[in-house]
Design a protein that fits this description.
Strand content: under 5%
Number of domains: 1
Number of helices: 19
Order of helices and strands: HHHHHHHHHHHHHHHHHHH
Radius of gyration: 22 Å
Distance between the termini: 44 Å
Structural class: mainly alpha
Largest sheet: none
Shape: globular
Length: about 425
């Protein structure tokens, strides 16, 4: 038994699978098992340290060369350190703000150096999807059982009182998680060679898609639609055009659906409410649009470098200074980093996507193409959702984003080096 445990503990994949089970483990440790608060709060940090040790060993023994994105990473880290040390008056808030961003971005390095092959990526994607399926199924069960959504996530005047939120903080977080998982599940379904496998991934796809719909998260719906469009555009541009046409026809038809129709009527209400004058007025006064405007005003105080990390619009600023959430990681970053930091962050993400897309295009004749393409679409969806939500404030979501981005960039590096030699 001891030898088995040591053997498992010495393998990098063991700890990667633990990381992919993050939402379930965190929920069990915080809500079910009688574990001290300190342990339940620090276990993920300990896991990251273990993975970083494996990453350091892999780095020393690897010939894999990181592409040009390393320069952007270095510059972005230097900026973060500079912003942290320039406000010594609020040192604790600055340090906590720095940690809340960069502690999770290092998952990119973990993904880049710990991935061994594209076959490894397939296995890790299956783990991601299975954990996502469990999470989504829990959310679906909440709606079926009539579990009331906490009032903080129900807008005034809304008739919806049961939005799926599972055990991942909120309906919007669950929506973003499902938007990441659904395209990967679709990719695994297309790749499957046996009827049994296809049936499994079809069930997983439909369950996670249903969970996404039941979250009522409009931002996640739109983000998934955009992510899927990108997938189809990479695969076959003509099909992507048909998809846009089908979307236009579908939205038009949705307008005429009575709100009394189960689920479809709810989706209609959630979407078309966005275009009413009442929603715009309420959102401008105390909702998203108003918060985005306030974040923009904060940036105007220090347009180049912002008001400082952990100083506005997120969890750290809410604890330290009592500021409200911006409901947009984009605007939060604009206020805290200023224009220079925001441009660097966007450039970093675009650079990661560029290398990832190149890696996926080289897999077109491979059976691994569709799962990798689905992952790319899921990452696009998560990044897009951050325009309207603080998704990167959720540890496991930002870890997944940078980890899998690192995996795809590792594939690109291997393809480039193989071609070179």
């Amino acid at each position: 038994m001891r030898e088995t445990v040591l053997k498992w503990g010495s393998q990098r994949t063991t700890w990667l699978y633990v990381l992919l089970a993050y939402p379930v483990i965190d929920f069990v440790m915080r809500k079910i098992l009688p574990i001290p608060v300190v342990v339940s709060s620090l276990w993920d940090k300990a896991l990251l340290i273990i993975l970083l040790l494996f990453t350091f060993v892999a780095f020393l023994g690897s010939n894999r060369v990181m592409p040009g994105i390393k320069h952007l990473f270095g510059a972005f880290f230097v900026l973060g350190i500079a912003l942290t040390v320039t406000d010594m008056t609020n040192w604790q808030a600055s340090f906590e703000g720095f940690r809340s961003v960069y502690q999770y971005i290092i998952a990119f390095l973990i993904g880049f150096y710990l991935l061994k092959s594209v076959e490894d990526l397939d296995k890790l994607l299956k783990a991601l999807v299975i954990v996502g399926f469990i999470t989504g199924l829990y959310g679906v069960a909440q709606v079926v059982l009539g579990v009331k959504t906490p009032e903080a996530w129900v807008q005034e005047g809304e008739t919806i009182t049961t939005r799926a939120f599972s055990f991942v903080t909120s309906p919007n977080v669950l929506g973003s998680y499902m938007a990441l998982v659904v395209p990967v599940a679709v990719g695994l379904f297309v790749k499957a060679s046996s009827l049994k496998e296809r049936a499994l991934w079809a069930i997983v796809t439909l369950t996670t898609l249903l969970a996404l719909l039941l979250t009522g998260s409009r931002g996640a719906w739109f983000a998934l639609a955009f992510g899927m469009f990108v997938c189809f555009f990479i695969w076959k541009k003509r099909v992507a055009g048909y998809l846009v046409l089908a979307g236009i026809i579908g939205v038009t038809a949705l307008f005429f659906v009575p709100e009394s129709v189960p689920m479809v009527g709810t989706v209609k209400n959630r979407i078309f409410t966005l275009f009413t004058s009442d929603y715009f007025e309420a959102s401008s006064q105390g909702g998203r649009i108003g918060r985005w405007g306030k974040a923009y005003d904060q940036m105007r105080v220090e347009p180049l470098f912002g008001v400082g990390l952990g100083h506005y619009g997120g969890a750290v600023a809410a604890r330290r200074f009592g500021t409200t959430y911006t409901d947009s990681y984009l605007f939060k970053s604009l206020a805290e980093y200023g224009l220079i930091g925001l441009i660097m962050l966007i450039g970093l993400i675009i650079s990661m996507f560029r290398y990832s897309a190149k890696a996926i295009l080289k897999l077109q004749q491979s059976p691994h193409f569709f799962p990798a393409l689905g992952l790319f679409g899921g990452l696009i969806a998560v990044a897009t959702h951050n325009l309207a939500e603080n998704i990167f404030e959720v540890p496991f979501m930002t870890l997944y984003f940078w980890l899998f981005g690192g995996f795809l960039c590792a594939l690109f590096a291997d393809q480039t080096q193989t071609k070179r030699w």
